[in-house]
Automatic annotation (TrEMBL), chain A:
Residues 420-443 are annotated as: Disordered. SUPFAM superfamilies: Nucleotide-diphospho-sugar transferases (SSF53448). This is Glycosyltransferase 2-like domain-containing protein. InterPro entries: Glyco_trans_2-like, Nucleotide-diphossugar_trans. Pfam families: Glycos_transf_2. It comes from the Bacteria. Residues 38-160 form the Glycosyltransferase 2-like domain.
Amino acid sequence: MRQAAAAYVPRPRIPLNDYGVLGDPPEPGAWTPTLPVSVVVSTLRGHARSLPLTLAGLAAQSYPDHLLEVIVVDAGDGPPVVLPDRVPGRTRVIRPEPGTSTTPDAGAAVADGHVVHLLDADLVLLPEHIEAHMRWHHLADHLVVLSRPRHAPGMDGTRMDGRLDRRLDTTSDLRAAGPKAFNAMVGVPASVPAALLRASGGWQPSGEYTELGYRLALAGAVFVAERHARSVHTGTPAEPDRSYLAEHVPTLRRLRKQRRTHLVPYVEAVVPVGDAAAEDVRATVDGLLASDLHDIVVIVAGPPTTGVRAIREAYAGRSRVVFAEDAPGMASRSVPFRFHCPPGWVPSPQTLRSIVAFADRKALGVLSLALDEREGVVSARLERTAAMNRARLLARPGEDLDDLVHETFGTLWEAGETWGIAPASAPRPETSRPGQRRVAARRSRNPLRRGLVGLLTRT
Amino acid sequence: MRTGDPEQGDSREEAGVVRSASRAPRTWGTSAGFGHCPEWLGRVVDGFSGPWHVPDAAGAPREPYDCVVVAVRTLSDLRRVVPMHRLLPSAGRVRVALAEVPPWATEPIPVSGQSDAWRHLADLRITRTTSGWHLDASFAEPVAAGEVIASVARGLLGTGRHMSQPVIGLAGDHADEWRPGDANATPVELTLPPPERRDAPGCDLLLRLGRDHDHDHDHDRDHDRDHDRDHDRDHDRGRDGGRSRDRAEVRAGGAHIDLGAGRDHADPGPLPPVDEAVINPIGFKRHPTGPLAVLGPDFAVTGGSDVLVRLGPRGELTDVEVARLRDVRGVVIPSCDGAGPAPIRMASGVTAGTAVATVARIVAGLAAAGVPVIARPDAARDAALGPELAEAVAAVGEEDLASDLRREETAIRLRRIALRAHGAVARWRAIAASAGLPVPPEPMVSVLLCTRRPEMIPFAIQQMERQRGVRLELIVGLHGLPAGSVPATSLPVTVVEAPGGLSFGALLNRMAAAASGTFLAKVDDDDWYGPDHLADLLLAQLYSGADLVGSAPEFVYLEPIDVTIRRRVGTERFAPFVAGGTVLITRAMFDAVGGFRPIPRTVDGQLLEAVQAAGGRIYRTHGFNYVLRRRNAREHTWRPPVQSFLTSYEEQWRGLVFNALMEDAPAYGRQK
């Protein structure tokens, strides 16, 4: 019966993060839930004292008992957790073996609900909390629902609270937050469809909720702010670990001011070797490596022919160049942008930074750059991982992913020349100041534009 | 001499008495358009500050003057002087001051024609003033000043204007604005029969405008007119009941026109026509920077707290005002009955009916000029506008003007209707028809469709069948195809076959030889055309007077990447290039340049060059009726590669996307 209930959740096409297209969710009590939820209560921070309160709050939920299971993850840093008297019907405690993950992920791994609801043991829920979250999950299967706990009097909880509040107010409850909506995920309570959590890579050890939110966004999630799911936080909010976030969340650009590489690159540039000449490939790779974005990685994709081996030799010492046999399929789960550049075409040092900024400004899912037209159109292409994964999530068999990207994020064609991509054979132009690139390119008298005069008079 | 004009009488007497002495030069001046800014009139002509006379339908002063000064504020006002040109006296020197011109206007270089006057020309100076022009012509002996005025008007707005038949007699105040620019009109004194022409009646139709009492304080241009003289006549005509201020009436004037019983006069409609030669979309701005403006009290159009323009008290809208309104997104017209937020307050003594007619005139003028208007329905005003325009105006909401694309679509819809309902050419066709005069048929357009691709012929013919508001015939050129390739169609079709070896230009010339239309339009077999494509081109030809008109290739479907773009192309202006698939040329200019060059490619471009070389003018109108199909490179030899379209686009849509004016064009051959 559980299987049947979980079988179908609609997959509406939500543009960017504007979940307003879903309409208003049903009022608590006025609908019939069908999806099971697994509540994962983490005691990671030694909340053993407040756990009975949390479990009592869960026991009083309006959400049907048969759809609710509770998994208490015993962090193992104190005496074993003992369940109090008042707990929901299906409650279990897992205590991971020493040396394995002691995070909510451990709980999520054993959870069999359709939705994983993440809690800390220092949260007390009001009775309609779970229902308020779950009503959203019945509307779409890729929503991450966030709610904001109130802080118990006397606790120092204003900082985190204010951060989320401000975001919600300026983005009409995240509907207008666009690709940056994940920033709002700063802690629990948060509920995530189990499949989406798995697709995002799950909870990382010593992780941050912002980092989880970032990976969920990359997996295609839409973030919903639920103001009616009330809870009270009795603990002290944790400070985010900035250096961890700097390494793991490339889109937090303000944390990456230094010109160096980081653990997770910002852009993954793919150069398919194909039957291109080695010097063309090298020109392209060199151009990419000269980018003024430093946290990038270049993937040279092609079977190990003689030419590729020579290229490998040339970049043996460059840690930012990676070799792959085939063009990689799905972008790795943690890199926000992928840039495909055909060999023989050389981006200017400003190209990557300016196209990514442009794609962010216009919230584009795919930016295609037409380079040349021979038999077909030769083009470079910048893909936003979040958009591509959202499209994969939504695509029905036979549907074109780009159509879906266009529906949810947006696609655009531009000329590569506008963004400073030149053929390898062309003389290198003088580089202009960063940030001026686009303007300069637009303003220049280019021969193609003059060629358009011919169009007006074509036969 | 029947006028009581004291200045004129005095000067004549004086001239008679002291002829031999060194007399002051006798100067006769007339002005138009300075009614609501008389202080400007004093400054517009150096060394002459009046008196200003009104041309009198009783006839021009017979004795030549030393100098005739004609001061007009705008092109519109100059066009109003032209039908009265026979009433100007002759003089040895003629000065024309044009106070202000819109940015698109050409220079006032006279086009002499057959006129005798210019054979005596001794000196001609054309000087640019701060906002306009001053023309000073001296002649060896006195010439008719009116002929000089007519030549200047021809030079400014071209000779290819079609409004002279039938000959209209104009009687009464402001009758001149009913036949703007018509040098062949006959000015008639209200009480007298029209003067005869040589072996012909003086006019075919006589337009009489009565005046009612309410209107005596009209200060438009006749501020020195002697009002008393018309008083008795007004009493005679009191039957109007004061509902309309200028009661217009058209009477058959020619004895040779046989009107049935009870049909000896016709109602020309409550509003004077819109002079499409000067009130038109030329100079339309696609991206206005200003806000929505509001038509306020005393016909001042205000944007925010600024008064942008002040219209004449009778709703006169001129080219200069239109040019100043180009940057507003639209004009909100408050309702006349006081229901709106700021009802239009009229000067005391003006009846409500007058206000309604005046507002209707402003709405029609703005709509014809491509300035979108927002107006709530008002039964009296809508009756004056006519049902079609009233409906179109009522359909416009503020949200239609929010985006530049929607605004332009709205503007095109409005002007199309306004120019067809209220444009002078269209109105006079209707008036002549209602007066029982035989009206010549609408000009015929011969569509030249040349193809090498049999699979595209049904698609192309379907698009021509969709054309509306135009009389057309189709000339299909089969370039190396068998004759059976043309499907049955409701259009008159002529098929011209040619071997594939014949050059494209030569084939087009053969097709043109088989065409019988006044205009030749070239269309391409694979592009998309909106249903008003040809009608809009004809309209553009009408208001621009150009020899060749065409659309801008604004919308392009890039087939290789399945994207539709809107390009940044200036439209509604005289420009050397138009899209090759949208060329519409007058038969006269086509014959003058000898047709297409007999070469295989770029024949359109060569035709444009030839027209320019022959002194013709080329006008580029909007591109909303045309989507260019940029095919894959391997199917077509394309000089600009696809990426060059992407360097200067304004908007972009995924897939093949049509604007609203295309009205669901057949999507033949869409990729995928």
